[in-house]
Amino acid sequence: MTSRAFSYYCTCDTLHFKIIAMEALVERLEKAVIRLEVVAAKLQNCPGGLVNGDIINIINGGEIQSMEAFDQLLSGPVSEYIKSSTAIGGDVATHAEMVNNALQVQRTFLKMATTHQQPSKTELTDLLRPLSEQIQEVQHFREKNRGSSLFNHLSAVSESIPALGWVAVCQKPGPYVKEMNDAAIFYTNRVLKNYKDTDPRHVEWVHSYLSIWTELQNFIKEHHTTGLVWSKTCPIAPTSLFNASPDGTCPSPPPPPGPPPVFMDNNSKADDTAPQHSALFAQLNQGEAITKGLKHVSDDQKTHKNPTLRPQEKTHHGSPAKSQNFSSSGHAPAKKHSPVLELEGKKWRVEYQEQTHDLVIEETELKQVVYAFSCSNCTLQIKGKINSIIVDNCKKLGLVFENVVGIVEIINSKDVQLQVLGKVPTISINKTEGCHVYLSKDSLDCEIVSAKSSEMNILVPKGEDDYRELPVPEQFKSVWDGSSLVTEPTKIAG
């Protein structure tokens, strides 16, 4: 081949590659035009125009991808959780519907954030109220069903549902969700322990439920790493969450908001043991303004400095009552409840018993649970084998039982004595002052878990009729060893 022919061949080859490159460039330009047309359509629906940052977000489909990712969370882990809860049924299925409702409310809130600017802190509190109410409903359901045989399931959900409050966390909400997830694991481990060898439905339920919070952490990390992302140019969010535009476009500016409502009912009758994470919404980011509504009380108005200001009530003899308890509103104490000892479905209710030492539950079944509530100076004996026992808000209660296949749980009680005649795998002591546990020879492998409790003693058999008393440590020492935190009981605690 001559040099001239070779030069002509190279020129043609170069032109061929340039034509291919131009075709690729034209194809990219056509795609860009299509995406710009989408931007133009958005501009027509959102008065005020868009800044460069919003154009980039719309071109990349940032807010669309965010909602699609959340919908995948609902159709994936949440759907599997509802399916596994339905398979178990009962309280677990009911609880799952409440969780699903809360997630749907959160979806509405996230959708609104993509088409509205962030409102003021006061208005944000109002917007978060529907979500807060859903969270409280989930938590109150657990408190109303403390005697349920599925109480560990309900507790796992109740302790972790405040994770949905991540939308109110200003910086890095992901770790907050992880903290709530860790709270659930304490109870899901109990579920696995009780059912891993007997019923795979409960194991599947644990995995599906925990995966919700794992995927939510991934969702936050990808789309809301440093906090919930709001629109920068569309109108400010409406005063009500459900006044947002359903089609996702920027709506017309809402009317001026009215006075901010109270976030939580001050007269709420929720149990003291219910987690208080849901109250986070109302207090978050207030700073020094949190004391703005408080009224100064002078010394001459303080009842502890002026006994004459204290309310007194005359007895039928005309003398002042010495032990009357009044609320801050001046109402008389609640009426006295009638004692209860009855079987309700699968639950034995032992409630409001006083000065009774011959309480006996016989003819028990494996599926039954015993729930002792607000009993004082009583002795309760349980014969046979049952599922679980819960002692709640009791004082000076003696409990004697034979065999429990699940857990014995002591909550918010004082001066309680337990005697195990047979076997029990787990005893939980929580928020209790004074608890003596007498173990039998068959129950020495029992796992005893305690938290926020004091004056606890475990007594193990020594000989035929004697016991060796061992105190449970209440004081601990933690030391950093360079790689981890090492915690051990102090010698003072025994």
CATH homologous superfamily identity of the largest domain: Adenylate cyclase-associated CAP, N-terminal domain
| Approximate shape | elongated
- How much helical structure, as a percent, in the residues? 25-40%
Strand tally is 16
- The chain-level structural class is alpha/beta
Please trace the helix and strand order, writing H or E for each element. HHHHHHHHHEEEEEEEEEEEEEEEE
Query: Which value, in Å, is the CA radius of gyration?
Result: 31 Å
Distance between the termini: 100 Å
Strand order of the largest sheet: 1-2-4-6-8-10-12
Do you know the CATH architecture of the largest domain?
Alpha Horseshoe
Q: Count the domains.
A: 3
For this structure, the quaternary state is single chain
Q: What is the strand content?
A: 15-25%
Please summarize the sheet with the most strands: 7 strands, mixed
Which parts are unreliable, with pLDDT below 50 for 5 consecutive residues or more? 47-60, 245-249, 251-275, 313-332
What name does the CATH topology of the largest domain carry? Serine Threonine Protein Phosphatase 5, Tetratricopeptide repeat
**CATH class label of the largest domain:** Mainly Alpha
Count of individual helical segments: 9
